[in-house]
Fold these 2 entries.
Entry 1:
Amino acid sequence: MSADAAITVAITTGEPVGVGPELTAAALNSARERWPSARFVVLGDRDLLTQRGLVADDDIEIGHHALAAPVEAGKLNAANGRYVLNLLDAAIDDALQGRFDAIVTAPLQKSTINDAGVPFTGHTEYLAERTGTPRVVMMLAGSSEKPLRVALATTHLPLKDVSAAITVESLVETLCIVDHDLRAHFGLAAPRILVTGLNPHAGENGYLGREEIDVIAPALERVRALGIDAPGPYPADTLFQPRYLKDADCVLAMFHDQGLPVLKFATFGEGINVTLGLPIIRTSVDHGTALDLAGTGRADPGSMIAAIDAAVTMARHKRAA
């Protein structure tokens, strides 16, 4: 039996008027060749998925969920906001019950869900709430050819709230999660995690802010005492260079737009989003719904292919652990 035999991956197709359905169809053609023993279950409206090019067969199943309203590619309709959440809820519930080994999520439109009357910040926060996980970590990663990984100490916060959200305790918890999941799901025996400062020049010895001295450095001392290899804090504007990254497995950035612009510049179209700390495996694309490309057949499935590959690979590592 191959290592990926019986591994089952659920794919939620996300916003129905975006590129998610067609990217799923395109990516699965590639995924079936690389993972011939894996099973894929695609969650979405059957007619929509067929229209966007998905053909179910012995290796691909469709978990049908009916749209609430007809769709036209590129034109948002709040009536389908709860449909998108239904796909996600179904995938989460079955993953928690062990029926799915991993979840891959296509992009969704946050505004549509909010317009449907459901307060929604993002996939990461929703997955944490639905699984009862007190702390999760967002990590974006490149492909196997571009292995840069960037995790975030904070996620979708206004910049004015970031400093208050970073505490010694939160950083220790975050680094423990990153270290654990890099070992358990990525097969890294001794991960090396480089940690950025918060302020320009990592605070310039306190002249540009004291978070590095009062919060970040004490947190790093605590995790190093636990056996976690987490040097820093480094100035973020100079850290992302090959000479520093060549021996690193991940960078922990303090906020969303500190680390992700660098990663997306280096890997966009091939990168993925991984939620660490969950009791289930979840990967996603590194881009949005691309409403202008929906239905045109011109959207690049590279990120979805990479997300599926990562989901299967992570499930295999978890099974072998």
Note: The first strand starts at residue 8 and ends at 12.
Entry 2:
Amino acid sequence: MDRLRAFEVFVTVVSRGSFTRAAEALETSPANVTRYVNELETHLGTRLLNRTSRRLSVTEAGEIFYARCKSILDDVAETEGLVSSASVEPRGRLRINAPVSFGILHLAPLWPEFMRRHPEVELDVALSDRVVDIVDEGYDLAIRISRAGSTNQAARKLATSRNILCASPAYLARCGYPAAPSDLMEHRCIGYSYAVTGDEWQLIDRESKVHTVKVNCHMRSNNGDTARAAALAGQGVIWQPTFLIGDDLRTGKLVQILPEYRLPDIDVLALYPSRRYLSAKTRAMIDFLVDAFGGVPPWDRAGAD
């Protein structure tokens, strides 16, 4: 039995939900698919799938085996890609999607250097704060700002950014400093429309206990720069990532509040459609960004809090 091929067949059956659809995806016959799965179950001495004429379900052992097989296949594909793309000069159009604020502040300054290193690559950069479907919309790469560990897609972590709760000195002089998370309910807050928890802000104390507070947002925006501008003008309390407000904290235009509590960190991720057959141009960009944001990220350097 070709074990790697058997792994591929099994993973495809589970992901497609049927032997017939798996056979179509693999360009083979349903009989071949059945044979591979049967041989795999015999080899392992356990049932991986329950199947009837109408329904296919994965056993508990099958779920564990599926997760491991998928990881193995992804690692193999990525390893092959490293070898095959290493000898190919990056070239062609590279479509990238990125969030607006992060794209302007931290990606735009990098593009000239990437173009200098890879003159045969044509960059096509689209900035949008909505979550795009990179496959359906034809992107080679998307930069995603995501709560740490929250993505199931093929991704490479570029950096981590802290979230900071803050307000302007003028607002705090007028309305006072909150002494506990519950005090936020008495303050004017500025919310981010795409926040997973909405108007329920989560603060974590030094014992890792999570305090959830339902705040009063008198303004919401789907753009961090807009929320930042309102906070700078003394209109309320915000939480925003240090990649956006790091300079404001360093210069005192914004002041951190409740510093003994932290908010969940967020990851800066490079997402791509699949680890399989990753193009030389996409791999070159990912490696370039990993190098640019390596170690302490730029927004937390130079004496940031």
Note: The CA atoms of residues 99 and 129 lie 5 Å apart.
